[in-house]
Amino acid sequence: MLNTLSGRFLVLTTVFVMLAEVLIFVPSIARFRMDYLSDRLERAQIASLALLADDMLETELEAELLENAGVYNVVLRRDEIRQLMLASPIPQQITGTYDLRMAGAVTLIRDAMLRLATPGNEIIRVIGAPVRDAGLLIEVTMETAHLRRAMVDYGVRILILSAVISIFTALLLFVAVRIVLVKPIKSVVGHMQRYAAAPEDVRGIIHPSSSVVELREAEEALMQLQTELTHALKQRERLAQLGGAVAKVSHDLRNILTSAQLFTDRIERSEDPLVRRLAPKLVNSITRAVSLCEGTLAFGRAEEPSPTFAVVCLHEIVGDIAESELLAAGSSKVEIVNTVPAPMMLRADPEQLFRIIMNLVRNARQAITATGQAGTVSVAARETEDAWYITVADTGPGLPKKAQDNLFTPFQGGARKGGTGLGLTIAGELARGHGGSVKLKETGPGGTVFEICLPKGDGTI
Fold first, then answer.
1. Distances from the Cα of 258 to the Cαs of 288, 363, 417, in angstroms?
2. Of the residues 150, 168, 186, which one is the last residue of a structural domain?
3. If we measure between CA atoms, which residue out of 230, 224, 287, 282 comes closest to residue 257?
4. pLDDT at res. 276
5. Which domain, by its residues, includes 54?
6. Distance CA 315, CA 31 (A)
7. Where does the record place the Histidine kinase domain (predicted)?
8. If we measure between CA atoms, which residue out of 327, 393, 321, 329 comes closest to residue 351?
9. Do residue 111 and residue 228 come from a single domain?
10. What count of other Cβ atoms lies within 10 Å of the Cβ of residue 305?
11. CATH number, domain with residue 348
12. Which of the listed ranges 9-18, 333-342, 413-422 does the model predict with the highest average pLDDT?
């Protein structure tokens, strides 16, 4: 019950109403005490006026007047003369004097709380102003037992009334909250649950209907979110189906193109001049198609495996990449320079690190080869207390603006004609798996520099 919105509203309402009633109770009990004492002063004044009317009252009548007034004696000050009007024996010593003429609200509240907290019977002196200007001052001596008992009775009635009002108010608010807030919130939650069970079903999308501004804004935001998510899920499903089809086609096409490459080897040995002139173009076209199929298949894999870390020699890995790329370059005038310090060791997955650097080196080599000019691709490395940094720099023509804007976007970040941009995408994903990154440091007519950052320790830089 207390864990529900309605239950908490019920408890909070009861607490706040009771707190308000307590704030009302304190001045009310002080006012009750003030009225009680004023009433005793007024009764004493009436008794003293009876004595003024007849100076020779009998002792029994005087005692009866004091008993009716609830006091022991009465002092009336008229015309600057202080006169003891009525008197009877006082059973004990007077413990306090209270002047109602100059008492402020704070003083009255303090005296009332002290009287409630003092259970014994005491004798006090009370001073006030006579009613109807019947004198300058009236003073009485009285017991506190009757006063405190009357205050307690009054306080109990106030507290009972407060409790009834609190419970009634809390119940009303409980019902109102359930109707105005809880029911609409449960409706929103119900829509969310139905949508979560079948997000592709557009019938589960909420239609805003609440009249409460805040709830309607929440419903509208939820409707927008559900609509966008449903469209995204449909698009994702279509892309997944398309990706599966592309992967199958690419796999079969790669096999066919590989066979075609074998035939082109024989075509190149043909004596026909036209065939010999067109064969290299055919070989290049088939090679690019095979590369595209292989890249698409690699990117279409479900997920790269988590890296298996080991201490590797970076110089040896870069040397293997250089040899492989120089063989692939054939007669092109591209030089690959390995400037990595021989003793440098770092912690990484050797296979994935090979692929990261190879993709960057291959992209650089192909960019230079496409210009038909000579060039250099250099790989360097350094380390700090926090990370290892590997740079791949080339003297190529630089990246075009479109390639820079879509650098790590698959099928959009290719810098050369026919490129897919998958090399950088794959390199970036593998680097992130190591907790690192691949960044473009600079590019321009003088060349391009990429930097690989691999963190040490727990993978944070």
1. 11, 22, 21
2. 168
3. 287
4. 66
5. 5-168
6. 94
7. 248-458
8. 321
9. no
10. 10
11. 3.30.565.10
12. 333-342
**Which one has a higher pLDDT value, 374 or 212?**
374
pLDDT at residue 379 in the model: 95
pLDDT, tens digit, 9 for 90 and up, residues 325-353? 887 666 678 899 999 998 899 999 988 89
- Do 373 and 425 sit in the same domain of this protein? yes
Cβ–Cβ contacts within 10 Å for residue 191, how many? 18
Q: Which CA distances in Å does 142 have to 47, 73, 112?
A: 15, 8, 16
Element housing 2 (H / E): none
For 62-96, what is each residue's pLDDT tens digit? 677 777 778 888 887 876 667 767 777 888 888 88
Picking from 55, 89, 54, 86, the residue whose alpha carbon sits closest to that of residue 68 is 86
Tokens of 214: 């805040």
Domain boundary among 297, 330, 364: 297
For residues 10 and 20, what is the distance between their CA atoms, to the nearest angstrom? 15
- Name the strand (E) or helix (H) holding 29: helix 5-53
Reply yes or no on whether the pLDDT at 446 is more than 80.
yes
If you write DSSP's letter for every residue of 174-237 in order, what string do you get? HHHHIIIIIHHHHHHHHHHHHHHH-TT-GGGS-----SSHHHHHHHHHHHHHHHHHHHHHHHHH
What are the tokens at 266?
């024989």
What mean pLDDT is reported for the chain? 79
Domain match, 267 and 310 both: no
In this structure, of 34-43, 44-53, 239-248, the range with the lowest mean pLDDT score is: 239-248
* Residue 198 belongs to a domain: no
Same domain, 381 and 278: no
Please state the domain count of the chain: 3
Pick the residue with more confidence: 21 or 435? Answer: 435
For residues 260 and 424, the model is more confident at: 424
In a domain, 441, yes or no: yes
460: in domain: no
pLDDT of the residue at 290: 63
pLDDT band at 10 (very low <50, low <70, confident <90, very high): confident
Do 319 and 451 lie in one domain? The reply is: yes
**For position 131, what pLDDT does the model report?**
77
Q: Report whether 403 contacts 277 (CB < 8 A).
A: no
Which residues fall within 8 angstroms of residue 324, CB to CB, at 6 or more apart? 358
Are 66 and 146 in a shared domain? Answer: yes
Q: Is residue 349 part of a domain?
A: yes
Q: What is the identity of the amino acid at 321?
A: I
Instruction: Give a three-class secondary structure readout of 71-132.
Output: CCEEEEEECCEEEEEECCCCCCCEEEEEECCCCCHHHHHHHHHHHHHCCCCCEEEEEECCHH
Under 8 Å between Cβ of 21 and 162: yes
For residues 35 and 100, membership in a common domain is answered with yes
For 163-172, 282-291, 426-435, which range has the lowest pLDDT when averaged over its residues? 282-291
For the record, the structure tokens of 171 come out as 């119940």
